[in-house]
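Objective 1.3, modelling of assemblies. Example input:
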Amino acid sequence: MITSKLKEAILSLRPGRVTLKYPFAPHDPEGDFRGYPELDTDKCIGCGACAAVCPARLIMIQDIDQNTRRMVRLLERCIFCGRCADVCPEDAITMTKHFELSTDSGREDMVAECEVFMATCQRCTRCYEPANPLDKIMEPGFRDDEIKRGGQDSPYEPIQSD
Amino acid sequence: MNAQQLGENIKQRFAAKVIDFETLGSDQLYVTITPDSLVEVAEHLYQDQGCRYVINGGTDRRQQRDAFLITHFFAQDEEKIYIAVHTEVGADDPQVDSITPVIPAANWSERETRDMVGVVPVGHPDPRRLVLSDDWPEDLYPLRYDVAHDVHPPPAEGVAPERLEPPEGASVVPIGPFFPVLEEPAYFRVFVEGEQVVGADYRGFYSHRGIEKLGCSVLTYNQVPFIAERICGICGYVHSCSYCQAAERAAGIEVPDRAEYIRTIMLELERLESHTLWLGIAGHIIGFDTVLMQTWRMREPLMWLCEQITGNRKTYGMNLVGGVRRDIKPEIYGDLRGVIDKIGDEWAELAEAIPGDSTLMARLQGTGILTPEVARARGAAGPTARGSGLAIDVRVDHPYAAYDRVEVNKCVYDSCDNRARARVRLGGTIDSINIIHQALDDMPDGPIMAEIDEELPAGRQAMSAVEAPRGEVFHWVLTGAENRPERWRVRAPTYANLQCVPPMLVGNALADVPISIGSYDPCFSCTERMEVVDVNSGQVRVYTEEQFRAEYDQPGAK
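Predicted structure (tokens):
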């Protein structure tokens, strides 16, 4: 009994202090950490590959008219898997190391929108050729209802288009 | 005996009652039988063939066949075979004979099939609602194809689960559904006579999220692994791995060797994380927080390592159908070996100190007895089964990934108490470290993802099991059109192990209940009645909910 307690005491004392100073000192994640997915809106061509593979289905697409596609990302739902960054044909998405994402000003902070000029695009999906047929785009062609549907799927209010 | 021979045996014995059978490799058998012979075939497999019951699943095939497909899954561990017994029941009369009277382990899953698909198990001894919330409408079956995945029926007031009545003279101690020590909601009603536990009732599924429905209705093959991984927060990798293996097997995709080794290593790292976490929690429950602090300190470098390898401390996101997304780079092998060896050394010290600690052992020894008979009848898995002397371990019995190329030791103890289950995990941790070393030694070079040229064919099926830290995880995938499974059935090990808890509690002192339930702690907030003490007279009056509402729950009440 006593020897057991002594062994346990030694085991507890040996490592010394292990607590990190975080959050009072910054903390950098390891190498290939997957944090906030950043979208370079200049590179985005609006192909919708990211929306097709996203397991949390947080990327909503709305074709406002023949020339404009709006991509809305509800990032509060993001599970940081990085599949969007994997499949993006233009490498427009980067998984950053940014992980401190809590916000005190409501969900708007975690909603990212971009509008992509589609010129005479026919939405044939040929600009994204999946390396793996399982990652194909399930809904080719124009869409105008995904954002509204997203609103019904999820506990969130639908995002109104102007 | 292989799957083909077993199929022929069954065909010979039951003749015309076996409509058809097919095999997948030498280790998977699919038998289709007539509905009226279900009980005798199940009994034959369970009693005569020595099979272990896994789970039941229901599939709505009214679109294809105008019928519901009811499937009972069995495992023959000695012969390394998984068996699926299919039977079709007509859509106009959705009921099927219950096998629970002959195989108690089918109790929950038959009720789940009734709740989710609407096929009634006739003759079920305890046909109460299991999975759906108490206010869910009677005739809405979520897993039917014509029910939308996001249907939200309106909530109802004043509903409560049907409860088992305690035996004559016993009092009820409610534990749950919400209590401060652990996050997970579960509602145990422990029946006590004085200190002694004489029975228990369980109501759970408060955090049912309808993941199977999502996998079969809105997600695609490669989205499912990420949702599967979120079935469990502690050991999610086993689920994504098991799902991917089932889908790969169904489609005939050959996974590259290196990917299989990476899966093996990640599974064992996850087991290390889980066992260290479990021991800490167990220490915490019995009031010995040193164990909690120290095991979690040991565990931390492992979490950093996993972040380095996979990009995340937990919920690695490594698996896709066909292989893994990230390589374990040779530069990291050294770090990996260093981290697990450090854990191994400290763990060995701890494992040596614990058995001599009489206060700790007094809580573990002789408490929470689970006899091998009950364990088998209720379908116990993993450390729960191995602590009761049942030598089952999927890694050895049904090798997957690279487990056929490494040496795995089945860690079995037969004292059937909480101590035995603790020792299985203490020993299993050291084993995991050895397995990781072996896998790193033999790690082949090459690709980590199979080339997939075309979409997965529809109508194929495969089963896959993985030994999770808590026991056998089992997935069955029936491939469908539209780039997603037609049916994806999941069984987590706790599903089986939790069914062992009520018999396990009987005969214990109430004080041993928390550690016996494993990680559940009593809470006094959930009482079914309300006590009001009149401070002036000191008189105590006990109200039922209705009486209380009648008196107080109205405008202007005192």
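Residues 257-285 of chain B form the longest helix (29 residues).
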